[in-house]
Design brief:
Blueprint lengths: L13 H14 L5 E2 L11 H12 L12 H15 L8 E4 L2 H12 L5 E5 L5 H7 L4 E5 L11 H7 L4 E7 L11 H11 L6 E5 L14 H4 L7 E6 L12 E4 L2 H12 L7 H12 L3 H22 L14 E2 L14 H12 L1 E2 L1 E2 L9 E4 L4 H16 L4
Parallel strand pairs: 1-10, 3-4, 3-5, 5-6, 6-7
Antiparallel strand pairs: 2-8, 7-8, 9-12, 11-12
Helix pairs in contact: 2-10, 3-10, 4-5, 4-9, 11-13, 12-13
Length: 393
């Protein structure tokens, strides 16, 4: 079969592959502790499920408008107006089948072959693939752990060019958990004045999981740049609704129109029941989401202290999301050469699943999720400590 050449650069998701393997081993009866999952371990709050049940009883089971139901788009506009501190209209919103779907549609709508898109490393594994599928080129912006994985403005300047159409920002960040400071956004906004063709994709899917205070993004820090800031968000992480597949974009109406044409030619409107549930998540009680936030903070502190106590492992304390990104480079070069081999070793020897940093553009690091119980985190840390002692360097 003649598969399209553009797929040659697209790799299977490292996170999904490791999660699937861990689940398979667990089904075989092995006592696997998964630190690979990119989703909360909590159940969706009951009032959200009640809204879905009511939608079923009320017969809300028909096709939905491509850009989202009027009710959900209004809920998103109200929610976003509060989060971003400015008035956002329903016409600026679009509902997609998850934030990933929104990002893909965005890339499809805005990138042409030969364009460039800048991505800050470590990055979420899917960004480069989405860019490559449009025939565009990914330009990587490197960062350092000793700077909390926040890029230097001078480094960004070296990457941007007249071909740069998109700059991806993800804070709180997957995989590092880092949160960019307000001053960084201000300096970045000044730099972007020189690149009027460059739009900022602000992936704020973890906005509800900040541990150092209220969420602040580039939209807050750069009001003069707002016409070029495209906001990505959703209900998956904050409300434990990953399987409901509701994400959304906030941007100018002409982009919403272009993305609606793409979505109308592919998936059409998103599930009516899931949209009703998302309305309840965004506009209903927030106490369950706040409880989950508190548990994640407790787990963050536990895994940070535990990893920091391991010999020859350095780690930056996450300020958001539910990931931590320790540096295991001192354990590579002997019997284990790459972070992939180290993750394979930990899975086989310690029965702990994690994700290699190579897939995030950061070889030598490993992403670990603390979206699991404190008991499992403690047990995983003990297993990892034991397994590391057996590595031949």
């Amino acid at each position: 079969m003649n598969i399209a050449e553009r797929l040659n650069k697209v790799k299977p998701s490292a996170t999904l592959a490791m999660s699937a393997r861990a689940k398979a081993m667990k089904a075989e009866g092995k006592n696997i502790i998964s630190l690979a999952a990119g989703e909360p371990d909590f159940d969706t709050p009951e009032h959200i499920k009640d809204a879905a049940r009511k939608a079923l009883v009320d017969g809300q089971t028909k096709y939905t408008p491509v850009a989202g139901t009027p009710k959900l788009r209004a809920c998103i506009a109200d929610f976003a107006s509060k989060v971003y501190g400015t008035s956002i209209r329903p016409a600026q919103t679009m509902v997609c089948a998850g934030a990933k779907h929104a990002l893909f549609n965005l890339c499809h709508a805005m990138l042409n072959p030969g364009d460039e898109a800048a991505v800050i490393a470590p990055y979420w594994v899917s960004y480069p693939d989405m860019i490559h599928l449009q025939g565009a080129e990914t330009k990587i912006i490197p960062t350092e752990a000793n700077n909390n994985f926040t890029p230097e403005i001078e480094t960004i300047e070296k990457v941007l060019s007249a071909k740069t159409k998109l700059l991806f920002i993800n804070s709180p960040n997957n995989p590092t958990g880092s949160v960019y400071p307000f001053e960084f956004y201000e300096a970045l906004a000044d730099l972007l004045e020189q690149y009027p063709q460059c739009y900022v994709v602000s992936d704020d899917i973890y906005h509800g999981l900040c541990y150092q205070g209220a969420f602040t993004g580039i939209y807050h820090a750069a009001p003069n740049l707002r016409e070029r800031i495209l906001l990505i968000n959703g209900v998956s992480k904050t409300y434990a609704m990953t399987g409901w597949r509701i994400g959304f974009l906030i941007g100018p109406p002409d982009l919403i129109g272009a993305m609606s044409r793409i979505q109308g030619a592919s998936t059409s409107g998103v599930c009516s029941i899931a949209q009703a549930a998302a309305c309840a998540a965004l506009s209903g009680a927030q106490d369950k989401a706040q409880d989950m936030h508190s548990h994640f903070r407790e787990r963050r502190d536990l895994i940070f202290e535990g990893l920091g106590a391991l010999p020859q492992v350095s780690v930056v304390k996450p300020e958001g999301a539910f990931y931590i990104f320790p540096d295991f480079q001192d354990y590579l070069g002997g019997s284990l050469k790459t972070s992939i081999e180290l993750c394979e070793y930990l899975l086989e020897e310690a029965l702990v699943a994690s994700v290699a940093g190579m897939g995030f553009g950061a070889e030598g690091f490993i992403r670990m999720s603390f979206a699991t119980s404190t008991d499992e985190i403690e047990e995983a840390l003990a297993r990892i400590a034991k397994a590391l002692k057996q590595i031949q360097k």
